Records
---
Amino acid sequence: MMRRCLLLVVALMLHAAAWAHKPSDSYLTLRGAAGAEDISVRWDIALRDLDYVLELDRDGNGALTWGEVRQRADDITRYATTHLELAAGGKTCNWASGTPMMLDKHSDGTYAVLALTAKCEGLAQGLKAKYSLLFDVDPSHRGLVQWAAPGSTTSQALVFGTESAEQSLALQPQGAWQTLRQYVTEGIWHIWIGFDHILFLVSLLLPAVLVRRAQMWEPGPSLRGALVEVLKVVTAFTLAHSITLSLAALGVVSLPSRIVESIIAFSVIVAALNNLRGTIERRRWVMAFVFGLIHGFGFASVLADLGLPQDALVLALVGFNVGVELGQMAIVVAFVPIAFALRRTAFYRRGVLVAGSILIALIATWWFIQRAFDIQGGPF
């Protein structure tokens, strides 16, 4: 039984290692022109995703070149436009190419940038979008859309996923409730797919049901004591990342993404290794607060990718932060009862705490190397 559980832990950790960078997203900016029915579209799609579905790396050397990408520009455009359908007044819009394809750097790699125009009739009767890019190979992929209606000075942020592949694009600004709900959902989703944030939090929570005596971990005497320790850690982490998330989202403070992501990986290493030595036993909340400040910048970068509606900036910020906390609490509620029930077993103290912490530290070390030295498998 213990061997099976350990194998499960290893499998989960290795799966998490595949997500050293953030999950697959593409970025769409759709803008209508006042008095016209054309919609200009800028679409940023990761080259790593395009290479996976279109095999852009013709020589198979693992290094995409601009020449290889440029030769497949028509194929890339065709693939993209067959996976995004715009319809106005019940009629499908027609695609027209704009300027030649370009490349742009994002925090997680190089993206192909498509400039397109959608020719729509009856735009005043309403506009709908159906998005399906990469869903057949990566159900977690999302399309992050900024939509500016004709004559509007603000934009609406939308997220397309497998469960929200078809949506209406409002010709009028969305209401406060829709904005709040959308960003709460995104906050929950992000913490659940943010494996580095999850592993940092789990590393801090693993010893919460134990006590350190004579340089050994022993079962904690009561659930109340464990809950107090969990409350300290979660509160400190929440307070810290809420501060920097807000400051970064409002443009008050900014740090380079590469530095932020590298320190986040480093924080996971420190938290995991601390479980082996017990150096910081009763003040793990201090570690949660200090590194939580950096994790807040990581959350802010995701929020920036989603796009913040300037007319509802505070509401979107509050909604995203609430979503992060709800997602975080769901993890805590699921983890603590199981950990407390298993705290007296050798499986938990050796298999989960010790072996699990070693695995987490190894995974986070690889993340740190990738992020600090910008290792992505090729020039793009």
---
Amino acid sequence: MMRKKVLIFSFIFIFFTIKAQDFKDCEFCGTFYPKEQELLNSIIDDFLKEAQEKIDGQILGIVSPHAGYMYSGKVAAYSYKILENEKFETVILLGPTHRYYFEGIAIYKEGFFKVPLGVLEIDKVLTEQFSLLKFANFNNNYFVGEHSLEVQLPFILKTVGTVKIVPILFGKISYQELKEFAQKLVQLSLNKKILIIVSTDFSHYLKYDEAVNFDRQTINLLENMEDYALFVSEQLNGGRACGIMPLISFILYSKNKNAKIKILKYLNSGDTAGDKNRVVGYVSAVSYIP
């Protein structure tokens, strides 16, 4: 009887401990991607079957788009396909803020993110490591109504599995701060097998041919790892990618790790959804050590 009471008490304690922690439910299931588990599984499976891609080397990170799955899911699958047989301890998600203005980076410090395919726990030990960066904040409010990281989670669960995550959003940030951030990623990678995922779309609302030409320029800068050229381009004209700052930090990290960046797939919404008058560009890419 006593043992039974102890077990019940333990269960209640664990339940309320989890409930007390920050639990972020999905906001874009049912709009950007299906909320029905079976349908979501089927759609991602179809995307992954179509994306026949392999990488011979150590994978450090990927670039993936973040539009609704009907628009960009086919492209995202090329990045996630190469992760199917890989093992990582923590996935660090880097995305742009679409709704709020802030300076530096915002980090979701602890808790859980829930999507129809499962729950992913935040790596609290790793998030605390970023507190040493003066431009980092831990304001969870910046994640409300933000889709750029959430839409990656079902793909992560399907390919990498249940893994700890570190969600990070980028606001206004300097080139020097991007270099410091990349150095922090390098430090973390020495003690833990991490995967970097950059969530970004490319050009927005150009006509089809104009978008293809403009995105090809950005793709060349990414593949040739021209981080500073991308930063200057953003300061002068902008419009290359909504996640340009995460993308630059991805290049800086790759350089520090002596890695290469390979483009896996490019399409835009004119290819996937049909309307070619105002399109959005989508790219999948990988950083790897051959």
